Amino acid sequence: MSTFLGTPPFPQAARTALADPQLRQNLAHATHTIRDKRARVVAEVEDWEALRQAGAAIKDHTLAHLPDYLEQLEAALTAAGAVVHWARDAAEANAVVAAVAKAHDVDEVVKVKSMVTQEIGLNEALAAEGIAAWETDLAELIVQLGDDLPSHILVPAIHRNRAEIRRIFADRMAAAGRPAPDDLTDEPAELAAAARLHLREKFLRAKVGVSGANFAVAESGTLVVVESEGNGRMCLTLPEVLVSVVGIEKVVPSFADLDVLLRLLPRSSTGERMNPYTSMWSGVRSGDGPQEVHVVLLDNGRTNALADDVGRTALRCIRCSACLNACPVYERVGGHAYGSVYPGPIGAILNPLMRGVGTDPQVDSLPYASSLCGRCEEVCPVAIPIPEILVDLRAQVVDAHRGSVTPKPEAIAMKGAAKAFGSGRRLGLSERLTGLALGLARRLPLVSAWTGTRDLPPAPRQSFREWWRDDRP
Amino acid sequence: MTAREEVLARVRAAVRDAASVERPTPVPGAAGGVELFCERVADYRAVVEQCTADELPARVAAALSGLTYVVPDGLWLDLPDGVRDEPTLSAAELDGIDAVVTAAAVGIAETGTIVLDHGPGQGRRALTLVPDHHLCLVRADQVVPDVPDAVARLDPSRPLTWISGPSATSDIELTRVEGVHGPRHLHVVVVG
């Protein structure tokens, strides 16, 4: 799974983000607005907690029986006329999409906004093969034309304001197709209209569409795409050929299970009772939509997460982004600091779970990008215990570095504590040294990241042992 | 080993010791009717009106006044002036038509959603996508209370399009703009 190239470990990346007042202002506005909308529509549902637990149970059940459901999905898709491909990793999935595009002799594809195709770096892989992949979601278009990175799962261009977007459209649209109108202002409605015209010519001529899927129904081979703008419907309906890249955790057993998930997702994600458009299709429908349909079932690290007894529940995630909006850390630093297409609390667990810990300092820093306040778990529509997984991953990071040349400061401290608590004499000695140690802690570079932002209590003049020995009546 | 065999083998190994989890019991939905449906459709800033079967032709004529429109086969209201999708219209031809008139499969009161299953009177998917106005006729007996009731009525082997208001985006500073790529005008008429 690719990360944003060159992103430094979280603490460094966060410092850069925190120094950008425009970014902080946009993020605060966005996260608070969506958070409030979500709270209002969630409060309308009589038994939201029962729905969450049902959503969690559907996903847990599916994951526990994933081999069976994947084979059932494959059979149903094939029976419905789709061609099913399997991909161990990003390179294999990208190769399938490129091969389909080449088989139809096209030099461009239109894309539905999809987290998974960002995860596998599909656009870059297709570009290397001489195929342009046009993003058609408004925010993704802003990100693509601006040669930028997405910063939020739901609203990827939330770090840009309207003036910046106007400039990007005015400067960059012409090179990609229909130019922006000369008199374009920074009114959101005008900017959206410019995107409509720019993309419409691409939709009308597109031969190959590429999508992800929010859900894949095992019993019927139905794929589901949830969206707002209609660009998804365009890509899923108008091209002759459709390729959908689907993570293996997206499967649900039956069509009836969509009931629960479609009640949970829009309310959690955009704070709407229902999103404007949801498309469902099962393979090929004669005379309606693409007549050649491919589905790529992708692993790319998902089985690593699946094998983790504690972290497995992260694969319940339905990519709503409620945890991002609820997170006090995300709210201040934004998505780029996480160095991945999956930012925020869910990114802080998904990235290490899928990619493994102990090899990349950037990934190893992510489980610490949290105050463990627990808001993410509270708002999660499928009740993923994110704080518990973060703590477990921190332990895994420490374990992975045990015995390495430069052990983590926490490891040294804990080792010291184990030694001190292991004997009464040593504990007595260390208590006498507490005052000295606290003074030192304020100055030591290794621990000043902790102490610099916290009030350390003054050390008592006398330790408990000393008091016991001297003052006992 | 093929990619298929290897991925499946990894999945099997990963869940070998996973505890089985029972599938959940259904969670009942809310209990609204046609009134709520109309309120909720209007919340999305779609146009919504209610009328009797007798009033319908005049309402439809008023809604389509001055517009060119396509009418799918099998619509239960006779609209002889509409363009037919026969022979099949190209995407570019559809782009030159102002509006489309369709029936629906289900209306969902709680969420203000119409669902098309692209059966008789609803046309193939492109018909309700490319023209800028969508006039959708929903019979009162097609309105169900909530999402579970809709899912129970729908057939997953058909393509399904769930529509909740006009196309919309909040991608620029979270300002809601109605109308990006799908129809910018959604007009729902509940009949009966």
UniProtKB/TrEMBL annotation, chain B:
It holds the Pfam family LUD_dom. Residues 93-191 form the LUD domain. SUPFAM superfamilies: NagB/RpiA/CoA transferase-like (SSF100950). This is Lactate utilization protein C. It comes from Nocardioides mangrovicus.
